[in-house]
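Why predict the complex rather than its parts? Because the way molecules touch one another can change local conformation, and only a joint prediction can capture that. The input here totals 918 residues.
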Amino acid sequence: MAEDLAGSITERDDFIVTKGKNKKQLKCDTDSSAGCVSQRACVYCGARVVLNPITDAIHLVHGPIGCATYTWDIRGSLSSGAELYRNSFSTDLKEQDIIFGGAKKLAAAIDGLVNKYQAKLVFVYSTCIVGVIGDDLEAICNAASRRHNIEVIPVESSGFIGNKSAGYRAAGDALLRLIKPSAPAVIEKNNSINYLGDFNLAGEAWIIQNYLRQMGVELNVTFTGDSHYTALKSAPKAKLNIIQCAGSMIYLAGKMEELYQIPYIQISFLGIEDTATSLRNIAAALGEESMIVKAEELIAKETARVEDIIKGYRTKLEGKKAAIFVGGGFKAISLIKQFREIGIDVVMIGTQTGRKEEYEIMNELVDDGTVILDDANPAELEKFMMEKGANLLVGGVKERPLAYKLGIAFIDHNHDRKHPLSGFEGAINFAEEVYSTVCSPVWKSLNALGMKSGVANHG
Amino acid sequence: MAEKNKENVPFRNVNENPCNMCMPMGGILALKGIEQSMVIVHGSQGCSTYMRRHIAEHFNEPVDVGSSSLNEKGTIYGGEKNLRQALDNIRKVYHPALIGIVTTCLAETIGEDIERITGQYLIDKEMEEFPIVTASTPGYGGSHFEGYFFTLKRILMQLTEAVEKNNKINIIIPNISPADIREIKRMLALMQIEYVLYPDFSDTLDRPFAKPYTKMSNGGTKITDIRSMGGAVATIQMGITIEDGISPGKYLEEEFGIPLYNIAIPMGVESTDAFINTLVEITGKNVPESIKQERGRLLDGMIDSHKYNFQGRSVIFGEPEMVYAVTKICVENGVFPAVVATGSQIGKFNQLVTAAVAECVEQSKILIETDFSHILAASKEGKVNIGIGPSDGRYLTEKGDIPLVRLGFPIHDRVGGQRLLSVGYTGTMMLLDRITNTLLENKYKSYRSSMYEKFYQQG
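Output of the joint prediction:
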């Protein structure tokens, strides 16, 4: 062969740093390189995961069937009411639609679905080919909106226009459009807060809602876990926005501050430390003495309840090493602290779509020698987990089999999980999950002596 | 009578909960069965990631697939640069012996000529002997079922040569489980038959745990074997439903004059007999006693279970080839196939299934190019009490209270999809037991309460 193929992919060099070793700035928030086997999905995916938890909306994918198939009911987002969001609707574009355009089909699809399900809200997601064949989504949606006197909102999520972060932005734009008051009247403010960036996986938003209720804080609406049309419409009335998943929501929060004068604070409910800090910060931001008192009561009560349980796990887990590769930066940051709570050090950490500010915080939190990497691929995950001697990996569905094949424990921090990881409740679940995988007896079998060789083999 | 969604107003313009995946998915699965191969999906990043996730969750195996990560620039000016970079990087990290390139909606819509691009790439790199196989698989061009067979045909078109006659039989298989593939190989070994099984993902997608981990897995159909398929005695293709245009067996027949035996997947007595008899017919070999015993045990088990099975009214859904095979098993055992459905658009399907169910007392409902909302409606109408198909059928359980026997691809909510054995006499028995026991479990679950309600309370 004519060229040297040894070594790693050079265009990935800037996306990987080792703390303490090199001073260079980690590169992030840019397109994935071709052939690098990125773990990221696309713009459409980003938009869909953010909007899909809106329970009473019709989520219609304008495109070929695959985009709808691979995203049907994939999030474990729970609903206290409507179930419409758990369907995956598609215009199922075929060859003739690509040639002649899919506009008529889309309009008819919206009509059919609205008549059948009587929804007040439709999201129409654009996919790669729609961006190329040039169907005028805006015009089609506007016309349908007038025809049915409901909201039909286009989501500009053609897969090739950027990475997953661009999808978060597209979802943000769709949400801004939804919450915009119809008349330019003065918005009547109330004392409630909006909670941004919780998708109610395994009821996590409900856990937080209960905490807030105990503190006397009124939750206006969650973006977007267990949310619905009417509740979302009231979003501009809130006094404060709290953001958890900043990667997907910081754009929306900034816009809401600009348009509706709602200030925001960043919080995280992953782990005891961050949960307690977040509850305190919310009470402080709202400034009511009774809330501050009640927050402290809640924190004291819950911490006492979970601390002993966590300590029990800590004795079993002390000294183990963790590798982290998750979607967003906030999760990664909280996980560093959460692992510390159970005596585990982080030796490798990365995200699909973390932002510069988030990587800076990670860099501050981790020990020297920890590898920090953006948009990693399986080869890199394998390399650094082995080099650093990681005992466990935190990741999503695609990373799980890699960890297992390497004989490494695994924590599911994905959208499909069926157990909450938020709040004090989640902290227990997290420790228990780490224990269940790190201390499982199956690893012993890997080191079993194995089978003896027969005499014939020695002949 | 077969019904297409089209005739089933008012939803002809929309697919509600898809019962099929897209073409490149099939292409990836086919290529995963070739030794030391890597796949690049030419399109935006999301396609490859979604499909990797879908495959990884079913097989519980690391599934590394490259992407040309087309962005806005590539979409406007062409994706050649991206594809070449992807080829470079995939070769650097994985050192594959073959690279398969499948396309997507986006690549096809912007008119990418991948044969020209890859041809030029090989010339520029002075490696014209290196096998790069290409398959044009736009998502809107068909389902994963067609993508699978079309890609198999494309590989043959690009690799297989007119060679001297050999003694081997080509065995072309559809998307069955690794356990099924191993069972077919076991039967062939018992019959002392020389063969090339194509494609063979029994090891590549179901790897034994072994240290150290290697990025490329062992196994798969050997490239040299694929090259020599043009010299085989005969081809047995388990693809009775596939159209000639995408049939790899048909291609071998037309191009190299190799007799084609197109048979159903060997599931059930009749279809497994057909497989064995075809082998006997081609080779003149005797059937060993052990296989005869397996057949006898199957018959024995069928008698044991026949009255329970007679209570069954099934909905069978998924890929056409698997659906057809399961329909035959149901009919053989007195389980009435009330609804027989596929999301693919296959012309022969209606005729074949109609013939298979001809002797049933009631008329089956056959659905082609359908979705789960139609399957559910037909199942309710047909008073179905058991579903057989991939795990997306959990929708039928949730909405229609129909217990599900998981079979085929994908199975995401249970472990062991790759280990499900359902072919041959022994596999048929195992599948039939799963069906019978599901019927029994469901009957016993409500037996006491339903009898009480039916008779005691009325009295």
